[in-house]
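This entry is retained here.
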Amino acid sequence: MAGGGRRVPWYVALPITLALIAAAFLAAVRLDWLPGLPDIFGTETKDRSGPAVLKSIQDMSRYQAATGNFQVIVDLEKDAKFLPDAIRGNRTLYVGAGAVSAYVDLGRVGKDGVTVSDDRRSVVLRLPHAKLDQAALDAKRSYVFTKERGLLDRLGDFFGSNPGNEHELNVLATQKIQDAAKESDLDTRAEQNTRSMLAGLLHSLGFTSVEVRFQ
């Protein structure tokens, strides 16, 4: 080569060239730069998980009186300072579906919570107010609707996954569903259903007057 440089031997240059071509081809497939090209490097999924292990059992005294099903759209956008969205940044629309149960804790009813008349025809029940359980996200009905990523974010997804982003979406969706349940009348519906259930049960046992009070 001119200037006294040494020519790279062909047996060194050839592997390097082939490696660069393979890397460029793989990047084009993974980043969808060639949409008409099939993904010949597709992966095969194998479930090697072990069986679930029972850690504890908790006795329940709650009467689950109502369940609300909710759906929320999480619009999560992350931008980088001093860089356009096409280079660095992502926006994800996530559809979260889940349920919140309302319950009455019958285990908290004390000795003075039940008053029966002398003729055993009337009864007064004093129960705690209904409460909301923690929101439970339904993985089968929750999904990413759309995801926009900048070039650097696409390269980051190419070299590794980002489980933290999925976790953040799940947390946000769960919290929004919990907030929606608090704004609903789910606890009121649970108290009405509990009152109807206990009234029907005690009437079948011979009581003619059943009064249920929440306090």
In short: The chain has a mean pLDDT of 78.
